[in-house]
Write a structure and sequence with these properties.
The protein is an alpha+beta fold. It is built from three helices and six strands, in the order H-E-E-H-E-E-E-H-E. The strands form two sheets. Strands 1-3-4-5 form a four-stranded antiparallel β-sheet. Strands 2-6 form a two-stranded antiparallel sheet. A hairpin with a 2-residue loop joins strand 4 and strand 5.
């Protein structure tokens, strides 16, 4: 591939690809940027942190499950999952993709 595009062109192509992927990631709707009291379906948990993923799983936050943001106070979100309410911080809210 380097022979066809050259080093500079290959670098520019990779840079454009990274920019495109980061823009798509920003457009993803997550728990930190949704309307209150609207039920959404979880599409994915976007984190590589296993402990964070496991913790969200114990709350019932996994793909296909319905979730509602009840309120937001500072960096804390009150969510409703499976007829239970939980308080999560903004780091957890950002990884739940809707």
């Amino acid at each position: 591939m380097e022979g066809i595009l050259g080093k500079k062109s290959m670098w520019q192509w990779l840079k454009k690809k990274d920019i495109h992927e980061s823009k798509n990631r920003k457009k993803q709707k997550n728990l930190s940027n949704v309307d209150l009291n609207v039920t959404y379906t979880i599409k994915a948990i976007d984190t590589e942190d296993v402990s964070m993923r496991d913790f969200l799983f114990t709350l019932g936050c996994y793909e296909g499950e319905a979730v509602t943001v009840i309120s937001k106070l500072a960096d804390n979100y009150i969510i409703s999952v499976k007829d239970a309410r939980y308080s999560i911080d903004s780091d957890l809210a950002k990884v739940v993709v809707l």
